[in-house]
Amino acid sequence: MSNQQSGNLQSIWIDGLWRNNPALVQLLGLCPLLAVSNSTINGLSLGLATMATLIISNVSVSATRHWLISEIRIPVFVLLIAGIVTSISLLMNAFTHQLYLSLGIFIPLIITNCTILARAEAYASRQRIIPAALDGLAMGLGFALVLTALGALRELIGTGHLLANADQLFGAMASDWRISLPDSYRGLLVAILPPGAFILLALLLAARNIIEHRREALQNKADDSATAHQEAHR
Predict the structure, then answer these.
(1) CA nearest to 89, candidates 64, 111, 71, 70
(2) Among 30, 92, 110, 135, which residue has the fewest nearby CB atoms (within 10 Å)?
(3) Please, are residues 168 and 102 in contact by the beta-carbon 8 Å criterion?
(4) pTM over 0.70
């Protein structure tokens, strides 16, 4: 693998997980992010479904990009995404029925997630299959991680438990995965209500911005030091 290819792959991962994260930077797909993330398992499940949709749609768009004329490109992308989401919905209904019922309308609403259509149009329609698949994986993983983290925070703060109903996703082996805080903690109800979703997402955004600003400040300081060192040796 050439250095340029390696750099491109690294950039795809950094964009999806941090620099251009759909949930923390682009602020796309906030409806399911806020509505479903009242538990770790719900957040993780919808995140995985969204990631699968992103990967398959990116690969499909990349594979068919040479045969689509510009006038019908967007409608075809929407039809592809709708077919993929419908297939995922049917599979979840068949194999994880209780989880399917818990997520409800938000599984079909993956079709309307702006991130999926945006990546299909902005990236997959211009790239080969492998980079398109990796872009879908990185963006989907970034979204799923935020969704899971938000769900874990809301569940833990709101109910004092973590990984409740894990068996709905992982089967009977996960029936004892539940983690509970001491009985003296009664939970903070606002965390699992809609206002709690906004508050905790805002805190995640703030934490990400603080880390990024500190990183940029350290980078600028290092660049200034390097520049001063070079000028001193002239």
Answers:
(1) 111
(2) 30
(3) yes
(4) yes
Given this model, what pLDDT does residue 2 score?
Answer: 52
Domain extent listing, the chain: 3-232
Q: Which DSSP string do the residues of the chain spell out, in sequence order?
A: --HHHHHHHHHHHHIIIIIT-TTTTS--SHHHHHHTTTSHHHHHHHHHHHHHHHHHHHHHHHHHGGG--GGGHHHHHHHHHHHHHHHHHHHHHHH-HHHHHHHGGGTGGGGG-HHHHHHHHHTGGGS-HHHHHHHHHHHHHHHHHHHHHHHHHHHHHHHSEESTTTHHHH-GGGTT--EE--TT----GGGGSHHHHHHHHHHHHHHHHHHHHHHHHHHHHHHHHHHHHHHHT-
Tokens representing 198?
């906004």
pLDDT in tens, 68-93: 888 888 999 999 999 999 999 999 99
